[in-house]
Amino acid sequence: MRLSTLEFYIRETLLSLRRNSLMSLASISTVALSFLILGLFVLLVINLNHLADTLEAQVEIAAFLDSELAEEEIGRIAREIKALPGVKESEFVSREEALERLRRQFGERQDLLDSVEEMNPLRHSFEIKAVEADQVKVVAQEVAKIEGVAEVKYRQEVVERLFSLTRSIRIAGLVLVVLLLMATVFLISNTIRLTVFARRREIGIMKLVGATDWFIRWPFILEGILLGLLGTLVAVLILSRLYDWVVTSIYSSLPFIPVLSPEGIMQPLTLLLLGLGFLVGAFGSLLSLRRFLRV
Amino acid sequence: MSKSYTDKDEIRVALEWGLEWGVKDMIKLCNVSKVYPNGNVALQDISIEIEKGEFVFFVGPSGAGKSTLAKLLLREELPSSGEILVNGVNIAKLKRHQIPYYRRGIGVVFQDFRLLPDKTVYENVAFAMRVVEAPRREILRQVPAVLHLVVLAHKSRSMPSQLSGGEQQRVGLARAIVNNPPVLLADEPTGNLDPETSWEIMRLLVEINRRGTTVIMATHARDIVDAMKKRVVALEGGRVVRDEKQGTYSCEETKSLEEREIGGLRKGFGLL
Ligand SMILES: Nc1ncnc2c1ncn2[C@@H]1O[C@H](COP(=O)(O)OP(=O)(O)OP(=O)(O)O)[C@@H](O)[C@H]1O
Ligand SMILES: [Mg+2]
Fold first, then answer.
1. What 3-state class would DSSP assign to A119?
2. Chain A contact set for B99 (CB, 8 A)
């Protein structure tokens, strides 16, 4: 391709954008809106995953032991637990330590515990973490089978609900994203179709003076790509402002909710969205050119 | 007037098809008929031969098939039967990607000018060169020269809407010849013009023809045709009813002759 041809394409593309400024603006806004929703969605899913990961790390299985156990028995149980597949770590909590924790939780009202001080009713236990949260149930069942383990408790419901929630959000998200992308492709292809229509005279003349098909197509493809990229750019700008604001407000008012910092995710997200915007634009215009640019 | 081939693709097309514009620039229609999909019969069994450098009028009443003939030559439409041979090549057999290169050999002028309303006179003419990816320096040389030829150099910055009909048609003419095509095809170029402006256009067509370009013009204007004393092909109801050259050639004979010449041409290229 000659440099002067490229220059010609760019001039034609800009001219066409300006000539159909209202329509271009409409499609840029819609692309922006779609990608904004898409971006918000990605951020939500990433953060939910992060939340799930954090919670996963906190999820513990508590295995309470029989009351009268010798030291070596406890050692054997510790080894057996460690040997189970899916166990990330396990920690022995003696009954004295358990009482100590209880004390800390009661804070001011130590008096309530005074009576139990003499004959500690608590049991020795192991606090076990699974490698992955969806293994918690299996691990708990295995631990319960170990001899000397009296009872096993874990936060089954919380874990399972969180997981079914993230799963359904991921699926819903995927469906939504696919629908949005399709809508965006459709929109861009429609815009390009209208531009092709608006310039049919010019296209006819180009054909008559011997323009090749690709020479005619390029400005439209560039236009589609430009629409896609501009829309995405707007979305990315809004998105990064919005996310900055959300993160700052959460940090200051709800610090215990783990959110990912903007620095880490906005850059790859921006690249991802721009790449997607490029593809959506190119695909959208190719789609309409295939259907509407026949001789 | 022949164009130098800088484009590889163009050379390839020329080699594959022997379609080297400027070699002989012979157009031949053999028993061409055109029936539109809706059943309209536009042309019936037309046989015509046009040689390089000729000036040919196609005349006939409305609906005679003049514009259909132009569309066939431009390969906008395909004949329903018969063959159109250009330099011995059946243009119906051109592949889609070869058509643009074929069209570059034919400059076209229309009754309704078909200028781009939002481009200046200069840009309208330069457009035809940009489309064929002519080098910038050639555009800078050629466009002013052609505008000078059609006496519009002083209006190169005007918009088409600021021009008279005759001036607009001169822009159309400039655009048609700016790439130096061996053939100029004009479909009722004076149809929208008054007699005096029409003669301006005719003078230009004669000048272009004098420089070696084959000119094919479809028209209603009897007075022009009568005054010009050029070859006239009269159509009526899709048939040739008069052609001074008719009978001086036969399709079959010349076809085989043509093929032999093309074979030689191919060999010539092969040696290069
Ligand atoms: N696209 C088309 N589809 C169907 N029929 C067509 C089409 N174009 C032309 N025709 C028919 O073919 C015949 C020849 O039309 P054509 O336009 O070639 O005539 P013409 O000689 O150019 O007439 P005019 O002098 O009015 O321009 C007419 O009967 C016309 O109705
Ligand atoms: Mg006509």
1. coil
2. 295
**Closest Cα in chain A to B180:** A209
- All structural domains of chain A with their residue ranges: 3-55+162-293, 60-154
pLDDT, one tens digit per residue, over A158-169 is 666 777 777 888
> Would you say residue A156 has pLDDT above 70?
no
Query: Locate tokens 């080297």: which residue?
Result: B20
Q: Provide the ipTM.
A: 0.78
Which class is A60-154 in CATH?
alpha beta
Structure tokens at A190: 């429609």
Does the distance separating the beta carbons of A207 and B100 come in below 8 Å? Answer: yes
Edge to edge, the sheet with strand A61-65 lists A87-93, A125-130, A61-65, A149-154
pLDDT digits (tens, 9 = 90+) for A28-86: 888 898 899 889 888 887 887 787 777 666 667 888 888 878 888 888 888 888 888 88
Please check whether residue A133 is in contact with residue A59, taking contact to mean a CB–CB distance below 8 angstroms: yes
Contacts of residue A45, defined as CB under 8 A and 6 or more positions apart, other chains included, come to: A166, A169, A170, A173
Residues in A closer than 8 angstroms to B126, CB to CB, are: none
Structure tokens at A16: 């066409």
- The answer to whether B116 contacts A205, with C-beta atoms less than 8 Å apart, is yes
